[in-house]
Amino acid sequence: MTSTDDFTFIEDDGTQGSNPTKLFDDYHQFNSGKTTDLDVQIVTALRAKHPDLIVTTVPGGNCNLVQFAAAGYATAQLDDKSESVLRWRGFIGPAHRGGSGYLADSIFFAKWHYSWNSEDFILYTIVEGFSSIQYILKEPRGHETTSSHSSVVDSLLATIGAWLIKEEPAIYVFDGYWTRSTKLWQEVEKAEWKDVILDPKMKKALTEVASKFFDSKEIYEEYGVPWKRGLIFHGPVGNGKTISLKALMHTIMDRKQPVVTLYVKSAPQSYHLRAVFQMARAMTPCMLILEDIDTIVTNNTRSYFFNEVDGLENNDGILMIATTNHLDRLDPGLSKRPSRFDRKYLFPLPNKAERSLYAQYWRNKLKGKKGIDFPSKLCDAAADITDDFSFAYLKEAFVATLLELARSHENDEEEEEDEANLDGGDDDEDDPLDKYEFWRAFKEQVKILRSEMGDGNDVDDGNPDELPGTPRAEHAEIVSLLDAIRVQGIPQPRKAAFSSTVGETEGADSRARFLQNRLTESPIIRDFSLVPKTKHAKLGNGAWEWGI
C-alpha cells in the first residue's frame, strides 16, 4: 500500500491569491458543524482581521443601529463587495385591503458602512438562532486601546437609547408582550368628552377623576396613604365604557405633564401579569387599563394579581381602571375590596333623556347635509321608540338610516317605491312626523333592530362555537385557499419559506418563523425577564428589545 508520505498536504491560510479572506468564510465555517458559542468565535475572528480597531458587541434588540439609520438619523450603506450577504427576500402584504404590498429583505449576515455625526464605522449584523447581534468596529481615540470601550461608539449608543425612550404620544398595549401603538393613539385622539352622552353628574365625575388623582400626590403623601386608585367601569355592552375610556386617555395625555396609558388586552399567565405591573411601575404616573378584567384575572391568576395590586411592591402613581360587562361574575376580591378597586361606575342602558341627547348629537352632525331633513322635534320622537336600546343599537339605527337614505337617493326611479315600502303596513299612518323621510327610514330601521333583539335568548355570550383565528378556523381557511390554487392550475407549493405553523421542523423553518417576526413595521418592546436565562437572553437583560 502506498505510504501517505507520497502526498503533500498544502494548507491554505487565506493569504494566497489576490482575494483577501472574508469574515463570511469564517461565518460559514462556524455554522458548518462546530459546536458554538458563535459570539466568541466572531469576536475572535474580527479582532484577528482588524487588530487596530475596537470591537464592540451590541444585541440587535437593544440599540438597533440599522433601525436608527432607517429613521434618518444616520446612514447605513450595505457593503456587498468586500463581504458576502446572507438574506432572504419576501413579499409583505398590504396593511389594508386594496394595497399593493411590497418586497422586503430579512438579512442574516451583512457588513455595512455606517456614518453618524461625521464619524465612520464598520458594522456587522449577524443573526444567531433567534437573536441578532451587532459588531461595531472603530479606531481608538486618545488613551483608548483595542481592549477598551470606544467613546465614539458609546456616544452613538447613548444617542440611540435617548431616541428610543423619547416621549411621544402613544398607547402602550400588552397582548403577550408590550408594543407601543401610535395607531391606537390616533384613534384615541379623536375621542372627546363632548361626544360622550352620559348622565351629567356621572360625566362630570369621570372627567375629573383622573385629574384629581394625578394632581393629588402631595395630599396622599401628607396623610401617609398609598398614591394609587382603582376604578371599575361596568354595565351592559355598548353603553359608553369604551368611548369614555378613550376620552379619558385623551384627557390625561393633554395635561401639562402628560400621563401615559397602558392598555392590557390579555394576560393569561402569571408571568404576563408580572410583566404588566413591572411596566406600570416603570412608567408611573400612568393609567393602567384592564379591558374585560373577568377574562384577565382568572382562577389560575387571581392570587397572583392580588399580590401585584396590594402586595409589598410600590404601586404609587398607578390609576387602574378595569372594565367588565358582568360585574356579578367578578371575584368578590375584585369587586368588593376597596383597596383594589375603590369606586364602581355603572354604564346602564340610556334613559329617555339620554337617548334624546344622543339623537340631538346626530342631528348636530347632520346639519347642512344635503337631502337630510332632521328637525329638533324628531329627537324626542326617536327617544320614545328606542326604549331598551343601548348606545350601540342607537348608533346602528342612525347609521343604517343614513345608508338607506343614501341608497334611495341614488336612483330617482326607485325612490318612490322605497318610500312606499317605508310607509306600507305601518300602524302609524296618521303620524304627523311621517312627512319627514328621515323619520320614516329611522322607524323602519328601529323596527328591524328590535326584531333582531328578540327576547334576549340570542344574545352573544362571548363564546361562539368558531372564532376567526382559532386553529380549526385557520385550517379550514388554508384548505380553501389551497383548493382555489389547485383549481387555478397553479402548482402546489412546497413547504412555505415564510411559514409560521406550529410544529414545523427546525432549521430553515425556524429561520422562516424568525424572518416573519423580523419583517414588521412597528417597534416591539419585549421583556427579557420572560425569556429563559440562556446567554442570548442575557444579552439584552434589563433593556427593552425593539424589533426591526
UniProtKB/TrEMBL annotation:
InterPro entries: 26S_Proteasome_ATPase, AAA+_ATPase, ATPase_AAA_core, P-loop_NTPase. Residues 227-351 form the AAA+ ATPase domain. GO terms for molecular function: ATP binding; ATP hydrolysis activity. Residues 408-430 are annotated as: Disordered. Keywords: ATP-binding, Hydrolase, Nucleotide-binding. The keyword Nucleotide-binding applies. Pfam families: AAA. SMART domains: AAA. GO terms for cellular component: proteasome regulatory particle, base subcomplex. Residues 411-430 have a biased composition (Acidic residues). Belongs to the AAA ATPase family. PANTHER family: 26S PROTEASOME REGULATORY SUBUNIT. This is P-loop containing nucleoside triphosphate hydrolase protein.
